[in-house]
Design goal:
Largest sheet: 7 strands, parallel
Number of strands: 30
CATH architecture of the largest domain: 3-Layer(aba) Sandwich
Shape: globular
Number of domains: 5
Helix content: 25-40%
Strand content: 15-25%
Distance between the termini: 49 Å
CATH superfamily of the largest domain: P-loop containing nucleotide triphosphate hydrolases
Number of helices: 18
Bound molecules: adenosine-5'-diphosphate, zinc ion
CATH class of the largest domain: Alpha Beta
Structural class: alpha/beta
Length: about 725
Amino acid sequence: MIVGVLVEITNKSVDRIFDYIVPKDLEKEIAIGKRVEVPFGSRILVGFILEIKQTSDTDKLKEIIKVLDKEVILTEELLNLGKYLQKTTLASLISCYQVMLPKGYKASIKNNINKKYRKVYYLSDLTDKKITPRQKEVIELFKEKDRLSRDDLKDISISILNTLVKNKVLEVKKEEVYRLDYAKTEKKIKELTPLQKNAVTNILNTEKTVSLLYGVTGSGKTEVYMELIDKYLKKGLKSIVLVPEISLTPQLIKRFEERFKDNIALLHSALSDGEKYDEYRRIVKGEVDIVIGARSAVFAPLKNLGLIIIDECHSDSYKQDNSPKYNAKDVAIKRASDLGAKVVLGSATPMLEEYARGLKNVFNLVTLDRRVNGKELPKVELIDMNKEVGKSKGHFSQPLIDEINKTIERGEQVILLLNRRGYSSFVTCSNCGESVKCPNCDITLTYHKSSNILRCHYCGYATKYVVTCPNCHKDSLKDLGVGTEKIEEELKMILPKARVLRMDIDTTSRKGAHKKIVDAFSKKEADILLGTQMVAKGLDFPNVTLVGVINADTSLMLPDFRSSEKTFDLLNQVSGRAGRSEKSGKVIFQTFNPDNYAIKCAKENDYKSFYKEEMKNRKLMKYPPYYYLVLINVSSKDSKLALIESKKCEKVCHKYLDKTIILGSSPATIFKKQNIYHYQLILKYQYQDNIHEVLEKLVEYYATNNKVNLEVDFNPIHM
Ligand code: ADP
Ligand code: ZN
């Protein structure tokens, strides 16, 4: 017997199947989709069995060393999905399989994640046994339960237990335990409103694979998801729920656990590798019907999959930044179409691409245009900061300060957003005007006040903050940017009695820290929750009646064609945090661009007008959804070589892609990253049948070049 194995090396030049002989005694363990250990050159590697055959074209085959799995890891469905990923992203096949699996299941010789066991004790036959009084006490414990774990017996010394086992009074067995425990809560089911019920029926009855649930903030989308899942469960079908950055959505998880108990497996980056391994095992063993997770949970190998829900479907996090650069939404739609399952995309601010498909009836468009509580969406007031110059205190205008005061006096709570995208806290020299940049990357360093350190957010480079400018050597470096720490300080000065909780990368980096802040704010342990983008998403605090945005417009300045859309989304999402329960809410945006349409439409909570306006721009500028985009990145340690090769690619594109607009090559947005120089080409096209073919040839051409790297990103999220 011979097997074809795909080994763990992700380099494109090694990305093919190698044949191995199976020793007679291992034959019965062999199955396609299991992992094996094989000799590879002078090394030992792990790979997936992709083929079983009787003959090979190669002679002098080596033998496989061992079979690692009892059950199949890459099911037939995942095997096909991997091929689809390879075809659509042009990444190596092995990387497409690896990306679908949690660490403990990847092909890797360094893998050392294993099942966790515990000892469980049983009572055996007691006849003819001499028992001491101490031992009798232990035996008494078995009267109520016939099996007790080491944990149940933690007050008993191990030596007594060992003696009892030796004397055959007790029997001990090893039993697998799962590392993650779910929160035990009361079962709560809400009666759906007529509007919600309609949405559920509509989605259940549609012939279309994809439904777009466009529901304003607070319209009760989560309840609709849960009801749909329940309906599918009753048909014997399972569900996947994708959420952006799951660790940031503890409230959503809690609601799912209240309803579905331990019938849920969680897959997200905040879990330890062992926990992820266990959650994945529960899926593989068919012990759960629902998987909730971030992007890669779309690959969860549930059998009888009927429904994939993608919450906050406009989120960037569904696109993977590194190879394979896949989008979980595309994978979900591919999986669902193959299986005859359904996809639900849910958002209050769908991406333009998505809403356009809804309007064109490619997706089944379902609308929830009212809040569950029957209240209007919160009123938004714009403060023109141009007129506040000289009057404001720090970054706070008087109207915002007054409103915060009133809200706190009523015993209600405030959320404050510092829109930090593209406006991080950097230091600049007031003498020469230079800002301090990373020596390895072409970006400014971010100032962390609490540790007095300047840090690069790309490569991690860090240096102590000193006031001497590295450029002109005068002592004139100043912190000009504004960070949450600084705003927090200002708040303390302006409103000394207000209790403030801060939520940003720094305060949420430790495991569970985010949930702690959310819980504390829920319990009204603070008056103000101040934070970055994180405070805008998915949070549900009934007592929050004021939302303030310190700087509504900073994200408009991003060098990205989606910057208006991102700004509108963020403002709409954060506004949606106010007045979600009985009390009405109010919102204040401070802005220097009160006439900008993204800001104006966000003020009116008017997604449809924003959509219309932005679609005009996209059409004019030839951007999605009117055109498809591809980003080609050519990089090298040698900047000249990167330029030469990117010019070569440009020529190839011009020659073979006749119906495509080709921009560049030009230096990438971040030209230098970790001492590697990047050039980029942007392709825009509507119809270009051969584009995959041409780009695949390019990728193959550079696969064996170890001085230059070429990456292709279809439908890029960031430019
Ligand atoms: P969305 O996800 O659309 O922003 P949520 O699902 O978070 O909205 O619902 C908003 C609030 O309304 C939540 O506090 C939720 O518990 C509550 N809610 C949703 N549906 C109902 C219902 N049918 N009856 C009572 N309360 C509901
Ligand atoms: Zn750097």
